[in-house]
Amino acid sequence: MDVRSQMSMVFHLDKCLGCHTCTVACKNIWTDRKGAEYMWWNNVETKPGTGYPTKWEDQEIYKGGWEKSGSGIELRGAGKRKGLLNIFHNPNLPVIDDYYEPFTYKYLDLIESPLQDVQPVARPVSLITGKPIDIKMGPNWDDDLSGTPDFARKDPNLKNLSPAEQEAMFQLEKMALYYLPRICNHCLNPACVASCPSGAIYKRGEDGVVLIDQTKCRAWRMCVTACPYKKTYYNWSTGKSEKCLLCFPRIEAGIAPACMHSCVGRIRYLGVMLYDADMIEKAASSDDKDLINSHLNIYLDPHDPKVIAAAKANGVADSTIAAAQASPIYKFVKEWKIALPLHAEFRTLPNLFYVPPLLPVMASVSEQEKSSTPQLNPIAKNWDDKWLYDTSLDSIFGTIDDLRMPLKYMANMFSAGNEDLIADKLKKLMAIRIYRRHKTVGDISAEKSATALRNVNLTEAQAEAIYNLTSLAKFEERFVIPAAHREQAIEMIESTADVKGSTGFGFLAKPARGL
């Protein structure tokens, strides 16, 4: 058992406001410079939608991540053989139009314009060429536009839904959307690290943060292809690749990353997870039906004496073990089992988990006889129909199958197509809502509340703990950051410097089968 520590995250999607404060905070700190104008290490997408860059989830286009190959795995669009063939011409790279051509406005035209009969305007100009352009795309271009033909209906996650199911999603009275914030997942099996010909990308041994050594980067851009989440970018000005670094200077100082510190909805959680590095290859090579369970089984119980002993023997500090025991991530992912990885089928074993959105509880609408005063009807299907809201509790707290966002769509994103797995998480969230309704409003009986919790194997104590961490948690409860031990990291570099095949920080260059 090779026990290591990993900084991990949970994003609670039911709490995301779509305010983009996290995006602006990250942009102002890390990518506010030449060549990084189009980089959004943190971005918030509207779902259903095509995301950023366009259709990043469709690996038939971008060839990112890993795929099964016999008993092992191999990179889809990179690696030694594929990388050598495409090293001077890579057809799987996203082009600038898949992002957008960064632009600004000629504001001086408003000030220096001579007297004329029409109002002067500030023309948009490209930040790359400096020439006037017509703006056709931008970051979060489809923000709040769920249901539009240009974006939502081209979402790759709709591929398994029938036309009837898709139409049900996009009917005006049933239109729904939710926000999906994304940063680098700092994966356990990062495709970007495996794809880099120059060895510039590495995974820190002390906390698992994935970084790019700018002195070693040679701009092959295989990392851009290999990352299925498209969170590695090429800086056209410096000729280097760049990516989210989880604000590691802030973490080392005990401060939460900028996107998490500034989050208005308090949807973000950060903590340490202990994992068994010996299980990575087996988990990444699992069959599709076992992929998520194999992934989650990598993470170990930080209270287990055997795990603690193995962690200490492997150099994990006592402060890190204590942080893992108090980690909110372990509670969400392993203890309560209500958080899932995004697109586990990419086989990178991401360390960013999402509590899937239950979406606002809505009263259903039922058709009644025609109204004699249809003009008073605010939501008429047509001028002659009358619709009334059904506000009964059975309608408000209906079955998971009646949610506005189809289970199949949610499963395509968070459970590798396993609808039962995503339904289990949503039922737990619904049971907690029923329990809290009983506690605060009192119009749900104690018997019904207890039955709801019992059906999803939750106790009242667990329901209260989930409610408190979700709704009432203080800053230090959401972000449990261990003390930095840079002296140990330096010792690991020095101890492995002379070891053949070493990549530093205690990791050896041992590729998975199939590479």
Plain-language structure description:
By secondary structure, this protein is α+β, with helices and mostly antiparallel strands. Among the domains are: 268-359 and 399-478, Alpha-Beta Plaits, CATH 3.30.70; 364-396, no CATH class. The chain is built from 22 helices and 16 strands. The protein has a four-stranded mixed β-sheet. α17 crosses α18 and α18 (419-440) runs antiparallel to α19. The protein is globular. The two termini are 24 Å apart. The model is unreliable at 367-387 and 501-515 (pLDDT under 50).
What's the short story on this structure?
By secondary structure, the chain is of the alpha+beta class.
The Rg value, from CA coordinates, equals: 25 Å
Distance between the termini: 24 Å
Overall number of strands: 16
Q: Give start-end ranges of low-pLDDT stretches.
A: 367-387, 501-515
In DSSP terms, counting alpha (H) and pi (I) runs of 4 or more, how many helices? Answer: 22
Assign a percent range to the helix content. Answer: 25-40%
* Average pLDDT metric: 86
Percent strand equals 5-15%
CATH architecture of the domain at 268-359 and 399-478: 2-Layer Sandwich
- For the record, the CATH class of the domain at 268-359 and 399-478 is Alpha Beta
The outline comes out as globular
What structural class do helix, strand and pairing data support?
A: alpha+beta
Strand order of the largest sheet: 12-1-14-13
Quaternary organisation of the protein chains: single chain
Tags for this model:
515 residues, Alpha-Beta Plaits, 22 helices, disordered C terminus, 14% strand
